[in-house]
Design a protein that fits this description.
mainly beta; five-stranded parallel beta sheet
């Protein structure tokens, strides 16, 4: 399976839904969003897949939207991540994504979990949005190519 096109009313991508699908390089919706506006992406839903770039857009209220730990962990081909409307990154969410070079966080981003980017050895530059109030333990642990982390000032 190389690609998945999901219907726009999809609300939850379940635990390990696509875990280990190394040939999965594309996940999109009929409305052409890179990942549909879902309420939840559960643990290891896309871990160890062949996704190359993702844009995460969550919808719903703050109490019913979440991304669980390890959601995209060990995606060896993942190069680019953009969060849109997502206010946090989960524990170990992108851990072991060794090809990851680019991360663009939504302006609404406020919280980063533990070891979110652990072992992302190609990650070089990250800009943390002004609304971020917490950066947790080991956020960039093992990011051996990291040269710059910029915390934006509120405008």
């Amino acid at each position: 399976m190389k690609s998945v096109i999901a219907y726009d009313k999809l609300k939850v991508i379940g635990r390990q839904a696509f875990y280990g699908c190394k040939s999965l390089t594309s996940f999109s919706s009929f409305s052409k969003l890179p990942i549909p506006k879902v309420h939840a992406i559960e643990q290891s839903a896309f871990a160890e897949t062949g996704l190359v770039d993702i844009s995460i857009s969550l919808s719903g209220t703050a109490t019913n939207t979440y991304i669980s730990p390890y959601a995209f962990a060990n995606c060896a081909s993942l190069k680019s991540v953009t969060t849109v409307g997502s206010n946090y990154l989960a524990d170990f969410e992108f851990a072991g994504c060794t090809a990851l070079t680019s991360v663009k966080m939504a302006n609404s981003h406020s919280f980063s979990g533990e070891y979110t980017f652990k072992g992302c050895t190609s990650l070089k530059d990250v800009v943390i949005p002004a609304n971020t109030f917490m950066v947790n333990n080991g956020l960039f642990y093992g990011c051996t190519s990291l040269t710059s982390v910029v915390f934006n000032e509120p405008s």
